[in-house]
Amino acid sequence: MRTPLYDEHRALGARMVDFAGWEMPVQYEGILSEHARTRTACTVFDTCHMGEFELSGPTAEADLERLLTMRVGTLAVGQCRYGYLLRDDGGVLDDLTCYRFGPDRFWLIVNAGTRASDFEWIRAHVSPGTRLQDRSDELGKLDVQGPRSWWVLGEALGRPVPPLTYFRLAETEWEGHTLVISRTGYTGEWGYEVYGPAEIALALWRRLVAAGATPAGLGARDTLRLEMGYPLYGHELSVERTPVAAARGAFVDIGKEFIGGAAVRRDLERGCARYLAGLRLEGRRAARGGAVALWDGRAVGEVTSGAYAPSLGVAVALAYLDAELAREGVRLELEVGRARLTATVVSLPFWTAGTARASQPPGAIA
Amino acid sequence: MNIPRELRYTNTHEWVRVKGGVATVGITDYAQQQLSEITYVELPDLNDQVNVSDEVAFVESVKAASDVYAPVSGTIIEVNTAVADEPERINRDPYGEGWLFKIRMSDPKEIASLLDADRYEEQLPPDEEE
Questions:
Q1: B129 near A CB under 8 A
Q2: Residue B130 is assigned to a structural domain of this protein
């Protein structure tokens, strides 16, 4: 499958890869420079492959409350919240963000690879009074990320970006079309996810690039999210584990009833065999997904994602580790080919200077 | 794609420059392009005895990694520590400042089994992207 920007990526000289069945750019000029531009300036990512579902009607809120792990009822209009979609046994079907547009109207932003299965699951679990639409094909999505995002997006739109705190959204007009802008992202920096009709995605992309956004691909998207310790579905999250193993109890409200809630409560009470932990390696050599963690000569875990972290100058990894070892300061070894790399469990995020939650656009004069 | 005429090559994308019984070895322009930005290099130890096709070095980029094989047999007499400190030298100048190690050859006849520039170019996969 191809996004509306496919030809543009080719024209820009991007190296293309398959991602969940989509032909996507992994890099343009280079992962390291795109990563650095996101940390210091502004980049734009084509995220049109992601899915957007709309749920509306008088029963939509109650349905979402039962389908999702986070509290939906307390979401204000214009607010978004991150959480999980679970099976009955607590296995993670997807991680997603829920947007509230009105008392009875919501969006779910879901992963490209799980879009079809998520939709089937949700369709099977909503009330007859809830209208469910898969709007993924008609909507385009661009992520504008980095400390310069507020200026760059404002320049592209020809008007200042509405003032939004973290995880808030607004609608705005651009050349006769309605755009949805949320102050969210997957990089740890100040930024926006911008939604609009798929047919204007190319024009908006070009306007953003002209305004100073550097095109960035999935390669930088992955190193940026890894430095923040953000999970990637299929790596850190899967139907094999409840979200308790990935995030202890975060993004879950056990004060409500939801599908998979019994398994989540069980894991919170009894504990999981393994928990996700951040590992900082001593050098630049990376331990990739699948590398075995060793402690005192025995296998105590497995890496789910790992790479050289450009902002830190050393390699980092996310790994599931035996519960008693998934705590800060534990030193262990990672088996990488014939080598054993020393790693230390550290707190997340790895990158602590991110601007995502800043109270005003970075660099603004107070 | 830069494939200097005066060098010899392997089908695993090492290049070899022979001078006075010493082979200088690096990875080709094709290899560095495929790997993209190199972030880590592991070099052999001085005085290591190596045989043809031994894995003697390791090169890693953000998204990929590759072993580097000895194109000829002999003794490692010099390694380029500058690339360990600054791996991007390999991307910038794979046949120059990005060289990896030097082997004092134990059997100079092995050179005859390496590829010349034409044969190396012929066995590269057809251009998909660029």
A1: yes
A2: no
For residue B12, is it within any domain?
A: yes
Q: What would the two tokens of residue B126 be?
A: 């057809």
Tell whether B111 is covered by a domain.
Answer: yes
Q: Using an 8 Å Cβ cutoff, are B28 and B9 in contact?
A: yes
Provide the β-strand partners of residue A6. none
For residues A272 and A242, the answer to whether their CB atoms sit within 8 Å is: yes
Q: Can you give the CATH number for the domain in which B40 is found?
A: 2.40.50.100
Domains identified in chain A and CATH numbers: 6-50+137-227 (3.30.1360.120), 52-134 (3.30.70.1400), 273-346 (2.40.30.110)
Does B53 reside within a domain?
yes
Tell me which residue in A16, A32, A283 faces B62 most closely, judged by beta carbons. Answer: A32
How does pLDDT run across B6-53, given as a tens digit for each residue? 999 999 999 999 999 999 999 999 999 999 999 999 999 999 999 999
Do A308 and B63 count as a contact with CB atoms less than 8 A apart? no
Q: Does A27 touch chain B (CB under 8 A)?
A: yes
pLDDT in tens, A208-233: 999 999 999 999 999 999 999 999 99
pLDDT above 90 as % of chain A: 97
pTM of the model: 0.94
Minimal C-alpha gap between A220 and chain B (Å): 9
Residue ranges of E strands in A66-210: 80-86, 92-102, 105-110, 131-134, 139-145, 169-174, 177-182, 191-197
Tokens at A363, concatenated? 């660099």
DSSP bridge pairs for A144: A44, A192
B35 by DSSP, 3-state: which? helix
Q: How many pairs of residues across A and B have Cβ atoms under 8 Å apart? A: 41
Q: Which domain holds residue B43?
A: 8-118
ipTM of the complex: 0.83
